[in-house]
Design goal:
Helix 7 crosses helix 9. The chain has one domain: 3-Layer(aba) Sandwich (Rossmann fold). Helices cover 32% and strands 23% of the residues. Strand 9 and strand 10 form a beta hairpin. The protein binds S-adenosylmethionine. The site of S-adenosylmethionine has 18 residues, from helix 1 and helix 4.
Length: 271
């Protein structure tokens, strides 16, 4: 693993304890009907998952994975964080839900699991940790059977290019939109959930333009079935975003229609 991923892994491992509280894992154990906000948001586009084999890439502590299982899917989650995988396994066990979790770096995962699935599910803060979107599409391709489906709701690269530290309520492009060769480096001692102070503070991320993402899939023969942009986000990217009753963050009304914040992409692998 390169130094960028090693730093990211140390940071993600350290976030897990706080996220078990922040993601309200106990609620999933206490209430067998409970679904994550992300999967609830995806419901109208996900289709029927009954009996479908679904692999969740970068599954984190498994709250979305468990929600997919509750919709009838036979689930496998993959993540490179041993702490996240352990937390996911323990939540599934406590909830009495069957599910399999594999600890693997994303680009190494085809070597860790040679199996085909009906659906690859990923997103909501997953792609930004990956340096090579074309390589990512190769991993998606590896795991899908012919006719299988990629489903993801993800942070929009246009939002990812904005300066997130401005307090003057101006939308200013300050970071790369395109993938480029270099990561963007951050030093942060907080996660987006919980109030734990992190010691592994250096993280590296990458933006990926929409054209780069779509081309990586189209080059492998994928058919884009649906592409929808959203004006809301699951995390507070800018301090002046407003929290809605639906639990999602939006820019104030006067600038809300200026920049998309997330997108949902559905793409099918050719038969
Ligand atoms: C923001 S979380 C995804 C969140 C997920 N949508 C959720 O809310 O549960 C990003 C996840 O990607 C994982 N990750 C980051 N870089 C990775 C890599 N190179 N290979 C595998 N997993 C990685 C982290 O461990 C973390 O669990």
């Amino acid at each position: 693993m390169d130094e960028f991923r090693e730093a990211n892994l140390a940071n993600w491992d350290e976030r897990v304890a706080g996220h078990i509280v922040g993601y309200e894992v106990q609620r999933y154990i206490d209430d067998p009907q409970h679904l994550s906000d992300v999967v609830t948001f995806d419901l109208e586009r996900l289709g029927d998952l009954s009996g479908k084999k679904v692999i969740h890439l970068q599954c984190h502590i498994g709250t979305d994975t468990l929600s997919l299982a509750r919709l009838g899917a036979e689930v496998t989650g993959i993540d490179f964080s041993p702490q996240a995988v352990a937390a996911a396994r323990s939540m599934f066990e406590a909830a009495g839900t069957p599910g399999r979790f594999i600890e693997s770096e994303l680009y190494d995962s085809p070597g860790a699991l040679d199996e085909k699935f009906d659906m690859v599910y990923t997103g909501v803060g997953a792609l930004t940790w990956l340096s090579d979107i074309d390589g990512w599409a190769g991993v998606v391709d590896h795991f899908l059977r012919p006719g299988g489906r990629l489903f993801m709701t993800e942070g929009h690269p246009m939002a990812g290019a904005l300066d997130q530290d401005r307090e003057d309520r101006l939308l200013v492009v300050d970071l790369p939109y395109f993938e480029g060769r270099m990561s963007t480096w951050h030093d942060e001692d907080r996660s987006y959930l919980g109030d734990a102070t992190l010691t592994n503070t250096t993280i590296h991320d990458w933006n990926h333009g929409l054209g780069e993402i779509l081309t990586a899939l189209l080059d492998r023969g994928f058919v884009i079935k649906s592409f929808v942009e959203h004006d809301s986000l699951f995390w507070q990217m800018h301090s002046w975003m407003e929290l809605g009753e639906d639990g999602r963050y939006r820019f104030p009304e006067e600038v809300r229609d200026q920049v998309p914040l997330m997108y949902t992409l559905v793409a099918d692998k050719e038969n």
